Amino acid sequence: MLKIDFRARHALYSVDATRRIEHAAQAALPPHTLMQRAGLAVAQLALAIAPHARRIWIACGPGNNGGDGLEAALHLQHWGKSPVVTWLGSPGKAPKDAATSYGRAVEAGVSFTDTPPQDYDLCIDALLGIGSDHRAPEGRMAHWINLMNAGPAPVLAVDIPTGLQSDTGAMAQHSVTARHTLSLLTLKPGLFTAHGRDAAGTVWLDELDTGHNPSVARPIATPTAWLAGAPDAVARRHASHKGSFGDVAVVGGAEGMTGAALLAASAALYAGAGRVFVGLLDGGSLKVDLSQPELMFRPIDRLDFKAMTVVCGCGGGDAIRGPLARILATSAAVVIDADAINSIANDSQLETLLLTRGKRLAATVLTPHPLEAARLLGRTAAEVQHDRLAAAQQLAQRFDCTVVLKGSGTVIAAPGQTPVINPTGNARLATAGTGDVLAGMVGARLAEGLAAFTAASQAVYQHGLAAEHWHIDTPLVAGSLARQAPTGAWLD
């Protein structure tokens, strides 16, 4: 059993791929073996996370997820606990394995009841698991979910919290909010994006002795996505110079929004760009930033985009439309953020220029939040959020570029790449300017020479990690994030 701590890279599998792995394992093992292993794993984790719990409510659904819960109940009974099972199934209608586990639980003396107990120390959600992708909780199941969420005891979800969709992280009206989730056989994408992080709590994985067991042949199953791991630290060569790390030009900061451009420029500077230029769209209100004299301010028409990585759109307003065509047509690499994205969504000529970049293999990174992504796709933000992986991949294929779909479980997608879900970050980032900081960080990595997909993945991970480790008594504001996230100064 493995606790997922987000430092290592992990493969994420769809429900269909998980089913194929499950069926192959069942064919290679004696009957009922997988459910027995799953139930034992659930019971062991329950004991580990709540060692002093005595009365344990196990809510079991009518299918095999419920069977895992029934199997866990008999182990807890044998270990001197007092499991109380509410079961929505029946021996005559349950799947064969679940019916077998019901008989074993009855024989072990497990207590069954039609109504949840009033007092309990731990709750185990074994209602639907990955069946939530095809069935929304209702009736008694919905009522039990509401009781779990309102109760004082922690909840351990079996495989995936009931009501959370395994493939997308979308939530049904009635969904379990768990303290811990034990994912069985595989990790599922929905645990880490959209509502997954809030619903799943701490995630654990048990492959049920199928992952590296030569006696159990797993079918070839392509991961749906990867959970990003920490990027490798790379030391700069002693003989390098400022030209070794490239030039970043930030174009943005329309009237009243100069700060957005300065945040992006500051982030690029602290992320290690060789030189950072700023082209403001407010008529050139600044010639120098005394707090950051390293930034070089230039009229936009004097910036040579052909030799630069351009970060455009941060605080750009409608004024970004003017230089955007030249940026798209000529820049060596570009990060397209905020108002630049909105301009492309509303202008077919700019969209054509963006498509042309893909054809000439120019490095391009789009960094939309869900509403901006929806504008590009001609959909609603709710539709984008309902399947974030699909939306990011659609954008990447449509515009032939790398896409960073921001939000809980940011998705990074690119043509020919298995998408990555970023595990770092928290609600501290839900404040003005943090997206500008991310754009600048991506720009610095592009200028350094990293491939667009790699540059985006590394920047997003570091950006989120800073929020997770931010000093608890220090407010996270974008200006501080711009200086500290790229360098790891928050660890001091």
Structure description:
The chain has 492 residues and is an alpha/beta fold. It is built from 16 helices and 19 strands. It has an eleven-stranded mixed beta sheet with strand order 2-10-19-18-17-16-15-14-11-12-13, sandwiched between helices. The chain has an eight-stranded mixed beta sheet with strand order 1-9-8-7-6-3-4-5, sandwiched between helices. β6, α5 (139-150) and β7 form a beta-alpha-beta unit. α7 packs across α14 (434-448) and α7 runs parallel beside α16 (478-484). The longest helix is centred in the N-terminal third of the chain and has 17 residues, at 33-49.
Q: What fraction of residues sit in β-strands? A: 15-25%
Structural class: alpha/beta
- Largest sheet data: 11 strands, mixed
Mean pLDDT: 95
Unreliable spans are none
Distance, first to last CA: 33 Å
Oligomer: single chain
Number of beta strands: 19
> Which radius of gyration do the C-alpha atoms yield?
26 Å
What is the helical fraction, as a range of percent? Answer: 25-40%
Defining traits:
about 500 residues, alpha/beta, eleven-stranded mixed sheet, eight-stranded mixed sheet, elongated
Summarize, please.
By secondary structure, the protein is an alpha/beta fold. Helix content is 37%, strand content 16%.
List the helices and strands and how they pair.
Blueprint: E1 2-3, E2 10-12, H1 15-28, H2 33-49, E3 55-60, H3 64-78, E4 82-87, H4 96-108, E5 111-112, E6 122-126, H5 139-150, E7 155-158, E8 180-184, H6 196-200, E9 202-206, E10 225-227, E11 247-252, H7 258-270, E12 275-280, E13 296-297, E14 309-312, H8 321-330, E15 333-337, H9 338-345, H10 348-359, E16 363-367, H11 370-377, H12 381-386, H13 388-399, E17 402-405, E18 411-413, E19 420-421, H14 434-448, H15 452-468, H16 478-484
Parallel strand pairs: 3-4, 3-6, 4-5, 6-7, 7-8, 8-9, 10-19, 11-12, 11-14, 12-13, 14-15, 15-16, 16-17
Antiparallel strand pairs: 1-9, 2-10, 17-18, 18-19
Helix pairs in contact: 2-3, 3-4, 7-14, 7-16, 8-10, 9-11, 11-13, 14-15, 14-16
